[in-house]
Amino acid sequence: MKVIGKVAAVEKYPTTIDDFCFWTKRELILNPFDVVKVSHLNGSTTFGVVEEISHITDTPSYLTSYMSNDFGDVESKSLTNRIGLNYVKAKVVANTENIYNPVHDGASVSLASREEVMYALGLEEVENPLPCGYLEMYEYEEESKVTIPVHLNSKFLVGPEGAHLNISGISGLAAKTSYAMFLMKAIYESYLNSNSDESAAFVILNVKGRDLLAIDEINNDLSEKKFKQVSSLYEMLGISSEPFKNVKYYFPFSDNNCSNTYATKKMLKDYKEQKKGFQVKYTFEDDRNLLDLLFSNIDDSTGTMESICDYIQTAGEFTELRNWKDFINKVREKCQTGRESSSKEITVASWRKFYRIIKKPLNNPLFSNRIIDDNNETRLSEAIYNIKKNDVYVVDISKLDETMQGFVFGDAIRAIYNLKLGALPEDTQTGFTRDEEDIPSRIIIFVDELNKYASNDTPKSSPVLQHLLDIAERGRSLGIILFSAEQFKSVIKDRVKGNCATHAYGRTNAIEISKQDYRYVPNVYKNMMTRLKPGEYIIQNPIFRSLLNIKFPEPIYKQFK
Amino acid sequence: MRRALDVLAEKTQGKSFKTKSFCYEDYHSPDSIFEIPNYEIVPKDFGETNHISQPKNLFRFAQKIQGNPPLFSYFLDGSRRTYKIDDVQYGKRIYPIVAGQIGIGCCRRAKKELTIELFEQKIVLVLPECANANRERYFWESLKSAVNKESTINSKYHIKIDEILYYADREQEDYEDSAIIEIQNKMVDLEKKVVADMTRQRLLSQDKRLIKDGSLEYQKMKTGNYRDISKIKNNYRWVVGVSKKFNPEMCVDNRKKSIAAKIAELPLYHRTPAFKFESLRSHGEEGAVYVTAWYLRIRDSKYTQSPFDGIVKVEKILITDSEMSDGLETEEVDIICANLINERNPVCYKIDTRWANHLYPVYLTESFVKSRYLSNNHLINAL
Q1: What's the rounded Cα separation, in Å, for the pair A486 and A466?
Q2: pLDDT at B40 (0 to 100)
Q3: Residue B257 maps to a domain
Q4: Are residues B11 and B143 both part of a single domain?
Q5: Are residues B37 and B14 in the same domain?
Q6: Domain contains B324
Q7: A90 pLDDT exceeds 90?
Q8: How far is A80 from chain B (nearest CA, A)?
Q9: Segment holding B123, helix H or strand E
Q10: H or E segment at A54?
């Protein structure tokens, strides 16, 4: 391969076991993350990943530069360029003979071939390969340009070796949802086409507009040429260019006064007719046990709200009620002064606080008196208890307010948790029983804006947070995999992000990268994070020897603009 | 195997004193012993066709031609580094043995970037002439072979002595200076060889000229392939010598009157009239060698430390009969000056103390040549 420079071990910057510097001509275009190779001892080859590229000339000071332009004449021209070069700092990632002595001064540095890049980055012979994107190297060197599909070991993404994915990046520019969908598509197809007993199902929370409300439809907005381009990328990655199948959409129930979804009425009607659209309702009889989820963002340090929720579950005066209206009236009664409390621990003030918090959400049509099956209405938990292998559930919470979003999300993860633990409620109308072998071995739940549920500011008592912590810490063995995304990773609870085996960084803002979470990332990569284009990610996974800068193709499913 | 100095002492039947070795340039300037004596330069007449009496401003002309391809495409610099490596007793006297590294580099400029065109490097030893006790004909050549073959210098240190020179054994002479002069002469000979090679390869032409660092006032030498400049002066048709340093005492006009004050007061981008000189020390078999010389200020004196900083001395050997009789065409002098003015940037301020008088491509050539030297310690240790 083409020799591009030579190693320079100088007094101030010696080569080390970990890194080395080499010089190149100033015209040579390299990028951070490019792989280079250096001939080393015993005929071995050391591989390095480019971390920093600097340009120097023999100008010792700005003053010299000023003087070299006729003492500040901006029009000044010179007949000779200053002697200058680029020097590149590379991190050692591999040696063919496991020799990690520092590389020697004067050793030739070359670009690497496709096979060598794969060896260097640990991308060869990945077990249980799952495409997570592709990398492009030496983009500006037409002859040497390398495009390589990047595969993860799926056992490090969806368990049991490692699990959970966290994606961070600026809204709108990082394409977080698209990347999560791309990965889920890859997982979906790998399980769909595999002969193993392992299986997967997906629960996806749609949090923005109609983003994910047509993931089973092809994207007709792509021009023919663009479609071919995207398809060829999918083909290279071993993924079909078809949208998801077996998709069911769950919309929060709306009435004429209050719409809980951005889906149009026609869309709802069509989806219902196609038996893929359902409306979610919560009834008092079956769902009063979920009331605690309305308190996810309420600081309940004394546990009074929790006590009230418990009381409502067990006290006869509440269990005998049939609907939300009566329930609200009952709570209102509890708020009357001078009324003797049935539970001495719960004060009137606490009931009033409880009432204040639940009053608004419970007025939402989502909380109904009964479920009409013929109208494709369902309880979300019931739907989840029935989830089958290769099912993709999209739960639309985009138009709900924050409290309600937390409520629905909490319901979803609680249901998944119960399903995987085999703790299906017995007191439901249908009385669920599931054959264990019929339950998907992996349920992947994707939620955007994780910061709403697991940020450092989330109250410790939040039931949603507790569920998320449980999933983060135990989900790997239970087969509940959390794919999460947020703008600012730094605000997410350590216990949640720390348990994610795979991290993907999209375009990130400069303030965010100055936070502690990014301390281990080399400066150049940090700065790159602020410039990443949509469709470009820096990913970290235990099987990769270093961070990788990957790209992924545009979504193939229908996009609502 | 023995060390090179032991082989030298044995083969020349001298007694080595194992003196501490050192590099001369660490202690004094390489130019200090080469000031040209005043009496060797004979002013003749005006050195250009138009006889001007006042400094001439060339800034506008320089600006006008700035977009044109530069006149100078090649830059030549020779340098040497000398070492006292031992004292050896021959008879009743003790003589120094001096080693030298000589490097000659010529860089070519294309599209504003320099690349190496030619490079010559030699490692030489200088002994007193009396080391050849029996005046053997091929003594120095066989001594060189013996040192390379029988000592550790080549086998262990992979260094090869290219030539063994000798200095005259004369009364009241500083032997060390004599030895260094031999190395200097060798360097000059190699410089001339590079120019001859370039001429032979037809690299130089009217629009691809060469700037040679330093004076063109070559001394006629007793040895060397290019010892007589009068015979090879045609090689210098497209060569201009630019000296950073000159002796103000020798700045005289055609009437032999000092123009030092006028030079010191030269306004920015002005040149002095060109004067023709006959260099007595260059006088060879083909007769006198005439050189036309003038001074040009390329840096404003308000930014420099001494009045002569920022002024370069420009020399051109007169080749044709008309040049020798009437001097160089004034237009030619102006073109050379305007191009030199346009070479003023970039500057090597803070990299080289002579920045005000240095031309950047010449500085780079010099840096390249010096970068190819063996380290002082390595060479001294190998000997």
Answers
A1: 18
A2: 55
A3: yes
A4: yes
A5: no
A6: yes
A7: yes
A8: 4
A9: strand B113-128
A10: strand A45-57
Query: Distance, in angstroms, between B197 CA and closest chain A CA?
Result: 25
> How many domains is chain B built from?
2
**Which one of A10, A80, A81, A82 would you mutate to disrupt binding with B, by most B Cβ within 10 Å of its Cβ?**
A80
Distances (CA, A) of A558 to A59, A210, A211, A391, B235: 55, 10, 9, 19, 77
Q: Which residue of A has its CA nearest to B68?
A: A79
pLDDT for residue A202 is more than 60: yes
**DSSP string spanning A406-474?**
HHHHHHHHHHHHHHHHT---SSSSS-----GGGS-SEEEEEES-THHHHBTTS-TT-HHHHHHHHHHHH
The predicted structure's pLDDT at residue A195: 77
Q: Does B44 lie in the same domain as B21?
A: no
Query: Could you tell me if A92 and A100 are in contact, meaning their C-beta atoms sit under 8 angstroms apart?
Result: yes
Residues 6+ apart with CB under 8 A from A269: none
Q: Are residues B289 and B379 in the same domain?
A: no
Say if residue B41's pLDDT is above 70.
no
**Cβ <8 Å between B114 and A68:** no
Give the β-pairing of A442-447 and A200-206.
parallel
Check CB contact under 8 Å for A64 and B350. yes
- Taking 60 as the threshold, does the pLDDT of residue A429 lie above it? no
Output the pLDDT for position A426.
62
CB-CB under 8 Å, B351 with A64 = yes
Share of chain B above pLDDT 90, in %: 49
Radius of gyration of chain A (CA): 28
pLDDT exceeds cutoff 60 at A427: no
Contact B350/A at CB under 8 A: yes
pLDDT digits (tens, 9 = 90+) for B126-162: 999 988 888 888 999 999 999 999 999 888 889 999 9
Q: Tell how far CA B374 is from the center of its chain.
A: 20
Establish if B381 belongs to a structural domain.
yes
A67/B349 Cβ within 8 A: yes
* DSSP strands (E only) in A67-139: 84-95, 108-111, 129-137
Q: Which residue of A has its CA nearest to B350?
A: A60
Burial code of A179-212, b = ≥16 C-beta within 10 A, e = fewer?
A: bbbbbbbbbbbbbeeeeeebbbbbbbbbbeebbb
Give the distance from CA B231 to its chain's centroid.
19
CATH superfamily, with its number, for domain A153-281+374-551: P-loop containing nucleotide triphosphate hydrolases (3.40.50.300)
CB contact under 8 A, A63 and B350: yes
Domain chopping of chain A, boundaries:
3-121, 153-281+374-551, 285-362
Q: Do B360 and A60 touch (CB under 8 A)?
A: no
Does A59 contact B at CB distance below 8 Å? Answer: yes
Q: Is A74 on the interface with B (CB under 8 A)?
A: no
Beta bridge partners of A455: A492
Beta bridge partners of B96: B87
Note whether B342 contacts A: Cβ–Cβ < 8 A.
yes
Predicted local distance difference test score (pLDDT) of residue B34: 52
d(CA B173, CA B169): 8
Q: Are residues B13 and B133 in the same domain?
A: yes
Please check whether residues B21 and B160 belong to one and the same domain.
yes
Give a yes or no: residue B358 inside a domain.
no
Hey, are the CB atoms on B345 and A59 less than 8 Å from each other?
no
- Has residue A14 got a pLDDT over 90? yes
Question: Is the domain of B227 the same as that of B109?
Answer: no
Identify the domain containing residue B110 by its residue range.
1-29+79-201+373-383
A342 touches B: beta carbon within 8 Å: no
Is B135 found in the same domain as B97? yes
The predicted model scores a pTM of 0.77
Kindly report the nearest CA distance between residue B297 and chain A, in angstroms. 14
Q: Chain B contacts of A70, Cβ < 8 Å?
A: 344-345
- Of A242, A222, A126, A22, nearest in space to A542 by CA: A126
ipTM > 0.85 for the complex? no
Which single residue is written with the structure tokens 């409306």?
A: A279
With H, G, I as helix, E, B as strand and everything else as coil, classify residue A7: strand
